[in-house]
Design a protein that fits this description.
Blueprint: E1 5-8, E2 15-16, H1 18-31, H2 39-44, H3 50-59, H4 70-84, E3 92-93, H5 97-106, E4 111-114, H6 119-128, E5 137-139, H7 152-161, E6 168-172, H8 175-184, E7 188-191, E8 206-208
Length: about 220
């Protein structure tokens, strides 16, 4: 396996953002006269973009879909307000992430973000965390016509970087990451510390427990 570039999921892979997502979701619920949800419940609703998260947290139901109802629109406006006001209050990098990103960047390897989080949150979050300049391409959930598990985001990264898909290592924590990588023809590594459930059964090429293990994929 020759790896010439890396693509990373964001939430649950590079950063633990659940506390800030839960805070914003519960503030939106409070604005609508609803009680707070447990942080674990919000965590279970993450992974399919902001509209899905708002629909699920509003209904407190993982099967809830975004149908653009007036109540959902109001909840989205409130969530948007609260989340933008505190993107990095409690959001932190997972262990060894910053050091490993720096090491990969110093080696001259192109790095990309491929997340289902909308650009309006992703770009300022990366700036606030001080790592935006390390990424050559950032694909949010609303950057393209399709998001993960579609192959399109990784195909876009491949085109932008000028690197073949089978030489881009996708790193994520959920089934959407593995499905997107498989659809695009990219090798894929799953992290076992993220938000995905039963990560060893997702079919990744490898599961890692510490982010720095990614350095093993870089040829000397």
């Amino acid at each position: 396996m020759t790896i010439r570039a890396f693509a990373f999921d964001l939430d649950g892979t590079l950063v633990d953002s659940i506390a800030d997502l839960a805070r914003a979701a519960n503030a939106a619920r409070a604005d609508l006269g609803l009680s707070a949800l447990a942080e674990a419940a919000v965590e279970s609703y993450v992974g399919d973009g902001a509209h899905s998260l708002v629909a699920r947290t509003l209904a407190d139901d993982h099967d809830a879909d975004w149908t653009n109802t007036p109540e959902q629109q109001e909840a989205m406006q409130r969530f948007d307000l609260h989340y933008k006001a505190g993107l990095t209050i409690a959001t932190r990098f997972y262990p060894k992430v910053q050091e490993t990103l720096h090491a990969l960047h110093e080696l001259g390897l192109p790095l990309a973000i491929v997340t289902n989080k909308p650009e309006r949150y992703t770009l300022p979050l990366l700036r606030e965390l001080g790592v935006s300049e390390q990424f050559d391409v950032v694909v949010g959930g609303d950057t393209l016509a399709e998001r993960k598990p579609s192959a399109l985001p990784l195909q876009y990264v491949s085109e932008r970087l000028g690197v073949a898909a089978d030489e881009i290592l996708m790193v994520g924590d959920s089934k959407n990451d593995i499905l997107a990588a498989r659809a695009a023809g990219c090798p894929v590594v799953a992290v076992e510390y993220g938000y995905g459930s039963d990560v060893h059964a997702l079919g990744a090429d490898r599961v890692i427990g510490v982010f720095s293990e990614l350095l093993e994929f870089v040829e000397e």
